[in-house]
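hiii, so i know i said id send this last week but things got crazy w the move. better late than never?? heres the sequnce for the chain we talked about at the cafe, plus the structure i predicted for it. fair warning i was half asleep when i ran it
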Amino acid sequence: MAIKPTDIEYGDLAYNPITGCQRGCPYCFARTIATRFGGHDGEQEPERPVIRLTEPLKLTRKGRIIQAPYPYGFRPTFYEYRLNDPADLKKARTVLVCFSGDMFGPWIPDSWIESVFLSLESRPGRFLFLTKYPQRYTDLARAGKLPEEDSFWYGTTVTGPGDAFFQAESVHTWLSVEPVLEPLGPSFPDGDRSVDWAVFGAETGRRMLKVYPADSWIRPAVERLQGAGVPVYMKKSLDGVWDGPLVRELPWTTQTLNV
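okay and structure toks below
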């Protein structure tokens, strides 16, 4: 089943009908997990840039046969059979959609993205999307393929002040500023319109070249956002970095949640 609890602090559930990414970020936690739990019983798929599965594959692990969670590791994979899973949502939750990859990468066909959107429309919940390719949101919107559901939140991952992000008046937008890899400065985020929410976090894990941010890297950006009335949420990874109690604001209202 694709819908399951998540360890990400601001979410309740994870929904992963598409996993994998071709970007190759050195700090990517999703790649580490997919590599660790990758593989399946049977012959390997011929080398292709993306994979589409219409039924689950099996994996024998420690003598048990289970559904393979990442049958091809971190190669972009569309689990088409998982599109029925949202029907099992019984009450409204915050659902993180395809955080185990990037469903808006240029290697993903529009039709796959549209199928994921369709699986969630009118379902109870609040659905958070996230990408490092914000131009894809713009392209989909121009093509009339980006839903304007109140329950859909379109996020961009940024790691420094020069990264582009998605802004739009007609939909909810947010920033995942994680990991913070350099000082953000007092003009971050720079744009004609701000976003509806911003999440900040430091790099975790044991990477040799891990970056350790400082309070001064994020404080001007946090103050700018709060001054504009934008809620800010700091992940626990900033405990010991931020000088003071972590700010843990959520923007949710009943108007942004399907019930």
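btw The first helix runs from residue 29 to 36. thought thatd interest u
miss u guys!!
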